[in-house]
Design a protein that fits this description.
It is a single chain. It contains 13 helices and eleven strands. With 299 residues, the protein is an alpha/beta fold. It has two domains: 2-90, Arc Repressor Mutant, subunit A, CATH 1.10.10; 97-292, D-Maltodextrin-Binding Protein, domain 2. Strands 3, 4, 5, 6, 7, 8, 9, 10 and 11 form a nine-stranded mixed β-sheet that branches. A two-stranded antiparallel ribbon has the order 1-2. Helix 10 links the parallel strand 7 (188-191) and strand 8. Helix 2 packs across helix 4 (37-51). The two termini are 47 Å apart.
């Protein structure tokens, strides 16, 4: 064991290597760690001499990982992640406040129905929500978690998928009764944002171009409320409107659905310290079936 401690390079050198490899720059690593570029370069050089391998290729316009560096990086990051997780579980004080940034529709339609199990499992935590209106708003957010739409890959962030995005036309039962032969003659509701729209639906289903929607909303929650009120047919996110379908406030008008490549993910920054409540909160939010009011486990 003593021999192992002697051959292991100083942890600070390894930490500098991980930052430089992740950021692709000695200068950026220095900014993150509070070191000068020269200090980062010196520590990397000491580490390379200790290991007997070149970890970076030095170039006129920057650095890139060498083959040995690329091979070692995932092991280093896994070791740091394990250290952070064990420290959080064993020593860190419970988090009293957790901030989540998301669109108003995701907050209202996905997170709020899951607040009961979160409160039961994390009774000491205050949840603070930040509404994201546009994609650039994420750059100004300092939340612990950000719920994003995409394919699950963002630089410097880890992610778990909340739900895939699957769309289908829905309408209120009262409006559906007005259908003579085909729901396509009914007025349509559209939403702004990353979801596919009515033209994408028609193209995927091999149908003629759709008529222009008579109503357009900038949030899905508003569009869903309009559909429930009988204002038109909505191309709806099935995950976000499942409760309305189950309660018969809305009816699906087609068996087929349009599956998008992207979905909604809960994400967090890799360079932030881990805390014990993270895993519990994420588990509650990725659960496809929220606990209904008045139900749930009893002691």
């Amino acid at each position: 064991m003593a021999e192992h401690r002697q051959t292991l390079p100083p942890l600070e050198w390894i930490r500098v290597f991980e930052a430089a490899a992740r950021l692709g720059s000695f200068t950026a690593a220095g900014h993150e760690l509070g070191l000068t570029q020269a200090a980062v370069s010196q520590r990397i050089r000491h580490l390379e001499l200790r290991l007997g391998a070149q970890l970076f290729n030095r170039q006129a316009r920057g650095v890139s990982l060498s083959t040995p560096g690329e091979a070692w990086l995932p092991h280093v990051q896994a070791a740091f992640a394990q250290l952070g997780h064990s420290a959080a579980n064993l020593f860190e004080s419970p988090r009293r406040k957790i901030a989540i940034a998301a669109s108003s529709s995701v907050i209202e339609l996905w997170i709020v129905p899951r607040l009961l199990p979160i409160a039961r499992r994390l009774p000491h935590v205050q949840l603070a929500f930040e509404t994201i209106q546009r994609l650039p708003d994420y750059e100004r957010s300092d939340a612990d978690f950000e719920i994003r739409f995409g394919e699950g890959h963002w630089p410097g962030r880890d992610a778990r998928r909340l739900f895939p995005e699957e769309l289908a036309p829905v309408a209120s039962p009262a409006l559906a009764r007005d259908i003579a032969d085909d729901w396509r003659a009914l007025p349509r509701i559209a939403t702004s944002g990353p979801r596919s729209g009515w033209r994408d639906w028609s193209n995927a289903m091999g149908e003629p171009p759709p008529p222009a929607p008579l109503l357009r909303f900038d949030t899905f929650a508003q569009a869903l409320a309009a559909a429930e009120a009988g204002a038109g047919v909505l191309l709806a996110s099935l995950a976000l409107c499942q409760a309305a379908i189950d309660a018969r406030r809305l009816l699906r008008l087609a068996d087929r659905s349009l599956r998008m490549e992207g979905g909604y993910w809960i994400t967090w920054a890799l360079n932030r310290p881990e805390f014990a409540e993270r895993r519990t909160l994420v588990e509650c939010l990725v659960n496809p079936q929220p606990i209904e009011a008045g139900k749930g486990a009893r002691a």
